[in-house]
Structures are given as structure tokens and as C-alpha cells.
Amino acid sequence: MQEEKESQNLDQVQEQSAEEELFGHMHVSHVVGIEEHVFKELPKVFIDGYTLTKISLTSNYVNCANYLSRSGASFQGCKEFSNNQLKNVRGIYYAVTNPALSLNTRRKMSRNIDLTDEIIRQIVTVHLAQTSGFTQNLDIDAYKQKLLIFYDNYQISVYDKYVKAKILKFPLEAQQGHLAISRVPKLPFPLKFEKITDLYIYNHTVSFSDEVIKFDIVTFGGDAQLIFNPNYNSVTVNMYSPDHEQQTLSLASRELYMFSHRRPRNENVD
After folding, report:
1. Same domain, 159 and 175
2. Residue 156: inside a domain
3. Over the stretch 39-72, which tens digit does the pLDDT of each residue have?
């Protein structure tokens, strides 16, 4: 009986050892997972997941695209302040309110990007002193709220209420090369628009069998057009490109679509 028990314990130890060994052989890698979510309306600011084009339906956005000239004298970027630390951030953000604090100068406030952190810290300290009501003995380490800071040679803006845009993939209806057409939810608010029958996105020509609506939006890192079919019937779309075969699709009545294309790396690639 004792020998049988010891044998079972040995088997369990060997099994556990094999499991740990197998676990140890697994590669450490980052895998993109998709979380499904039902949207009743289009987000005000988001990134198209098919082309990584930044899209904003509103002027209340902060585009964080780090730039540094070859000479180093001109620069632009964004930083996030959290737990008394400044870190570089990218992407696009929805600014819920106007900047909490903004500094603008006619001359370059700095020609050295290495001095930017010091200037930003001074401005953040001023902002925290104003919001806390203390001008002396300010404990900046105790400040827990995150801040988004946009900066370039001429301005620094501090945002205390903001939302980072998410990368979203809505149902894909068609694709021609790097041009992706997806069906998206309705607008969150009215937008200026124009009626069109033709659309041009880089070297793609898109023709509609009937008039459609093109809404005014802001894009970065590519081109995106928001198209609505106001007709009671479906609209046929013909897409032409010298680099791809002609394609045809149908836009359903009263539905909203996104035509999106990443910025070409060069003129010969599309």
C-alpha cells in the first residue's frame, strides 16, 4: 500500500515536471487579439484597423506624430505625464475639453529637443500649482492624474481630459490593393457634406451609379472618405486602378461606409 502511494506521488512529480518543462519551451511573443464590441455610433476619433489611418470627426483632437528634423532644430511630439514621469506617446487622442494650459511663442522657445522635458516639467508644475491652489511646497509626486502634453518649437499645450483613440476594424465589404471599404455605424453628430458621383483616393478612381454623400473628416497617415448612401435603392460602385483589377460592390440603402487607404511608401507602390 505504501509502495503504491509512493509510486503515485512519483508519477505526479514527473507529470508536473513535464508540464513545467513544456511551459518553459514556449516562445514569449506578442499576439494581437480582437475583442468584439457593438457600436451604436461611430467614435469621434479612431484609427482604421485596415490601413492604420488616423480619423477624426471633430476638430477636438491631438495628433501625436513625433517629428525631428535632420538638424534637430525643428521638432514636434507628445508626452504623457504620469507618476511624475514623462514618456513619449504616439497615436491620436480625443480632447474632451480645451487645453488646461497652453503656452505659445512667436519665436522658437527651444531649438534643442533635449531641453523640452525640462520646459514641460516647469509648465506642468505651474498647471498643478494653479489647479491645486498651492504655490509653495507643491508635492508633484503626489499628483496622480495623467496629463497629455503636445509640444513643438513654438507651443506647449497641456490636456487633463482626453481619450486615446482605439484601432478599430469594422465589417470589411471589399478591398482593392490597399484600399479598404468597411461598413461603419451612424454618425454621432451632424457633419458638413457634399454630394458626389466620383471619388479619388491616391491612384484609385471610385465611381458611383448614383449620387452619394461625402462627409468632411480629418485624416492623418493616409486618406479616408466617409460615404453615405441616401438613396432608397442600393448604389453600384466601380473601382478602377492601374495596379489592380476592376472591382464592383454595392452600397446598401441608408448605410454608411468608410473608404480608407494607408499612405503609400512611394509613388510606385499602392
Report:
1. no
2. yes
3. 999 999 999 999 999 999 999 999 998 877 777 6
